[in-house]
Structure formats: structure tokens, C-alpha cells
Amino acid sequence: MTMGFLDNITLGLSIALSYHNLLYCFLGVLLGMVIGVIPGIGVLASISMLFPITFYLDPTTALIMLAGIWYGSSYGGSTAAILLNIPGTPSNAVTALDGYPMARAGRGGVALFMTTIASFVGGSIGILVMTMFTPVIAPYALRFGSAEYFSLMVFGLVAASTISGGSVAKGLAMVVAGLMLGTIGADMYTGVPRFSFGFFELTESVSLVALAMGMFGISEVIATVRRIKPGDIDVDSVGLRAMLPTRDDWRRSWLPTLRGSGIGSFFGTLPATGPAVAAFMAYAVEKRSSSDPERFGKGAVEGIMAPEAANNSADQTAFIPTLSLGIPGSPTMALMLGALLVHGITPGPALLTESSDLFWGLVMSFWVGNLMLLILNIPLIGLWVRLLMLPYTWLYPAIIMFICIGTYTVNNSIFDIWLVLVFGFLGYVMRIFDWPTAPLLLGFVLGPLMENHFRRAMLLSRGDFATFVESPIAATSIILTVVALAWGLWSSQRNRKRRAAALQR
């Protein structure tokens, strides 16, 4: 008998409020804030570095900690964006457009205070949307077979490679590279090693931790250490007294915060979008709807409230497709999916019934984490300011050390550390030539799942490829894939013509 909604909430609270989970939730949000404040590291690198810790935890506790790191970094990332004009995460780049001018005008404290409020409201609305819609989607997802799952995964990968910007060819090439990396290891049906090149360590597949830490950790440090320098910060402008907003600030903020939360909740559920796209869209909507758009870019409080609310609500609703369908819509969600798979839990519609304690405990921990961040962020702003004033050359050796320690402790393997260095070098080279790394990670995580569903679908259909268009869900996914690919190619061609026309001028 299905538990009632209130029973689920009670179950989730009992799990989220346990001492063990409270401790790791606090640890996750605190580490997320610290790493979010440090310029250039970002949420992917931070989760990659701390990913090995979760292997020794209960699955629910592991996800609670990783989720805390994710939305904690969104809170912390706005600090460097506002004070130094250096975004801690890609979504915080929008916040810097008006946050930094506010700091230059002596209103840095107000900007930090208001972003904390916007982040809390946006996160809360995102949690409400997730709580209401994930259980609704899950029963429909139970109708999905292997053909439907494969088609949806193809759509997600193509959308992530084409819609989010950049070169379509490069994005698709990186997806294929990730899929190829995912085939390394023992065949899931026969157990025969594939593409291991004589290395015994590769018979179980390439380590997800080594790949993520190299691509997003080592390469990030190499790229960042060359451009980050300690900046001058007006300490007096971020004191507790200087944080109090005016009545006009509050009047201008509440509607943009609600609109940004709605935009973020919508875009968070879509593949290939996530918090960065949601933040840009929220900023564009506010600027277009403003009666005085010239204020934007010069310190408009609406320009920080809308994107901060949007990226935090998107952080929460991104869990909807990951948990209910088992399909991550972003690289960060791919790491969350990897954490579940490492613990032997398959995300999907059955998760809500077979592991209801995990799902509802995670959802209720989001409320706890958001409250912790609201309480912690403002008193610790002085600490973040002092951290930002440290030379970055003092920080990166410690980051590299923790990356190597974390990688080694997963399998006690020196080979994995060499993999980290190889992937770190490749990641940095890819940055130089503007090859996106996120599609590669998505392809690597989804590759084995896609192969499993493809082979199962072909077995059930006796080798008939028509099985991928006979089902309405699978056929719709294939059509959307073609549309996304065509749109991406058209957009890429249009941008190329625009750049050529600009050069001729």
C-alpha cells in the first residue's frame, strides 16, 4: 500500500534529521561554500574531488553530502563574483554583471546579503516543485522499456551537445569520445575484457573518479592558476552594518526573485540547460521587462536577485529527471547518477517505491541544507573575504594533493593517479582548443546504460530496429533528437555567418 504524502514527508524528515545525516549535510554545504568562493574551481571539480569520500557512506548520506556541495557552491560562488568579478561557478557569471558594480559603489555587503535571500527563496521553490512533480512523473515512467530509455538517453546526449552553445561538431565528438571510454572494461553480458590494452586495471572500466578529477579538477587548476590574482577588496563594505538593504532594494527584489525561481524551476528539469542557462534567461527576462533597462550592468539589485534565484531553483529541480527517469540533464547530475550506481542503486521510477527512504530523505535534507546555508552564509562573509585575499598560488598545491589522495583511496591504485594526470592534461588541451568536456562526461556515464538498454531492446525485438519508433515515447524522443540536432546545426551555421560578417566590417 502506497504511503500517503504526509507519511513520506515524516519518513524523509526522520532520515534527514538523524545525527549522521545532519553532520554530512552540514559538511557538504560548508565545503560547497568554501569551494564555491575559491575562484575557478567550480562545482564539478569540487564534487569530483570529494566524490571518493562518499564510497564509504550509506547511499542516502552520500547523496545528501554531494547535493549539499552542489547547492552550497552556488551560494559561495556569488561571493567571488560580486567582490572580485570572478565567478565561482558558470551560473554566477550573470551575478557579476550587476554584483561587481554594486561592490565598486560600496554596496558589496548589500549585494551579498540579497543574493543569500534570493538563493534561499529560489532553492525553496525548487524543492517544492521537486516534491510535487517527481512522484507524479514516476508512475508514467514505469511504462518505459529499454527502447524508450535508450531513445531518451540519445535525446539527452544530443541536446546537451547541440543546444547549450558552442560547436555542434565538437560537442557530438566529445559525446562519442565519452561513449567510447565507457566501453572499456568487461563486457556486461559475456565478461570478456574490451579495449583494456593489456592493463589489468582497465578490465573493470575506467575510474569515474579519475576521469572527473582529471578533466574538471587538474585541468581547472592549471587553467586558473595562470589567470587568478588576489584582488583588492573593500573590507568595510562587507561588514554586518553595511549589509542592510534599503526599502527600495526590497521593493525591487521580490518580483524578480519569484520570476527567477519559476524560470529556474522550469529550465532545471530540461536536459542541456541547468543553472547557467536558467540564470542567463532570468537576467534577460528582467532586463527586457524593466521600465529602466539602462540600470542593468551598473548595479541593479534585480540583476543579482533573478539569476541567483534561478540558478538555485534549477539546482533542485535538476534532480527530477535524474531520480525519476535515471537520465541526468547535466554533468553534475551525471556524477550524482554515478554515485547511485556505485552504491548499487539504479535511478528510475522504481526508486520512489523501492528506495523511498533514500528519495524522501534526500528531499527533506534539501530543506535542512538551505536553512544551514541561510544561517551560515552571512556570518561567514568576513571569512570568505579573507580567503579571497590569499594568493591563489598558496591554494592550488593543496587542491592537487587532495585530488591525488582522494583518487588513490578509492581503489588503492597508483594507476588511477596516472589516469588523473593523463585526463588532466587532456582536459587542459581541450580547453585550449575549445573542446567541451561536459559532453564527454555525460557520454561516459550514460554509455554503459545506453549499451545495456540498446542490446536488451534488440534482443526483445529479435534485431528489429523498428522497435525504436514503434512506441510513442521512443518515437517522440527520436523526433526531438532530430529537431535538436537540426536546431544546433542551424544555430551553429548562423553564428558562423555572423562572425564572418563582423570580421568583414
TrEMBL record:
What the entry lists under InterPro entries is as follows: DUF112_TM (IPR002823)
Q: Which residues form the DUF112 domain?
A: 22-442
Q: Show which residues constitute the signal peptide.
A: none
The alphabetical list of record keywords is:
Membrane, Transmembrane, Transmembrane helix
**Which positions, given as ranges, span the membrane?**
21-47, 110-134, 140-160, 167-186, 206-225, 261-285, 333-352, 359-385, 391-410, 417-445, 465-490
PANTHER family with a match to the protein in the record: TRICARBOXYLIC TRANSPORT PROTEIN (PTHR35342)
Q: What is this protein called?
A: DUF112 domain-containing protein
